[in-house]
């Protein structure tokens, strides 16, 4: 089945398990999902492709790991909030990489700072920043301040993420 047709069927069926299993069994087609995301194809393909990557990553991280740099590039250039959220989630699950490290750090900070971003993108960005604090403890105080900057005006999900972020970096 052609990848776009597969994503269209996924969109209408809602049978997440079937499609995740499909890609786990047809691993060579994961590159097609990544290509759709990287090439910023029209809605809904990048949104559904990136969502599937989260769940493929959770099921078998080694299948998505080869695409970490490409997904990092998407984080640096995309403006699509759904794709950014999903790619941020995948990158968070993979762990920090040295690839474009400084640019990604600044991008995660920007995601957290901007109230125009969706909460889930801000939350995943906070979790990505934990790895930076582990490697660069001198960032701890600045990132604590950033996380707490507008916490009182944010959603419950953001408040929980800040609490988890602060707990994770407390011992660093």
List the helices and strands and how they pair.
Layout: H1 3-13, H2 16-25, H3 30-38, H4 45-59, H5 61-64, H6 68-77, H7 81-94, H8 101-113, H9 119-135, H10 140-148, H11 156-170
What keyword list fits this structure?
74% helix; single chain; 0% strand; elongated
Could you characterize what this model shows?
With 172 residues, the chain is mostly helical. It folds into two domains: 1-95, no CATH class; 98-172, no CATH class. 74% of the residues lie in helices and 0% in strands. It has eleven helices and no strands. The chain has helices spanning 3-13, 16-25, 30-38, 45-59, 61-64, 68-77, 81-94, 101-113, 119-135, 140-148, 156-170. Helix 6 (68-77) runs antiparallel to helix 7 (81-94), helix 8 packs across helix 9 (119-135) and helix 10 runs antiparallel to helix 11. The protein is elongated, with a radius of gyration of 17 Å. The model has no long low-confidence stretch (mean pLDDT 96).
Order of helices and strands: HHHHHHHHHHH
Tally of separate helices:
11
Reported for the largest beta sheet, the result is:
none
Helix content: over 70%
The geometry reads as elongated
Number of domains: 2
Look at the structure and give the mean pLDDT. 96
Calculate Rg over CA atoms.
17 Å
- Uncertain residue ranges: none
Strand element count: 0
Structural class: mainly alpha
Strand content: under 5%
Oligomer: single chain
- The N- and C-terminal alpha carbons lie at a distance of 49 Å
């Amino acid at each position: 089945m052609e990848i776009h047709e597969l994503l269209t069927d996924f969109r209408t069926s809602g049978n997440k398990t079937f499609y995740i299993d499909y890609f786990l069994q047809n691993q060579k087609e994961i590159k097609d999902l990544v290509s759709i995301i990287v090439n910023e194809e029209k809605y809904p393909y990048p949104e559904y492709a990136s969502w599937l990557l989260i769940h493929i990553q959770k099921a078998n991280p080694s299948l998505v790991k080869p695409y970490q740099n490409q997904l990092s590039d998407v984080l640096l250039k995309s403006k699509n909030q759904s794709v950014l959220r999903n790619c941020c989630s995948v990158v968070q699950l993979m762990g920090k990489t040295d690839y474009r490290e400084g640019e990604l750090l600044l991008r995660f900070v920007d995601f957290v700072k901007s109230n125009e971003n969706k909460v889930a993108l801000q939350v995943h960005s906070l979790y990505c920043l934990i790895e930076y604090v582990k490697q660069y403890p001198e960032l701890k105080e600045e990132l604590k301040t950033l996380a707490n900057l507008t916490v009182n005006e944010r959603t419950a999900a953001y408040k929980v993420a800040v609490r988890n972020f602060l707990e994770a970096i407390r011992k660093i």
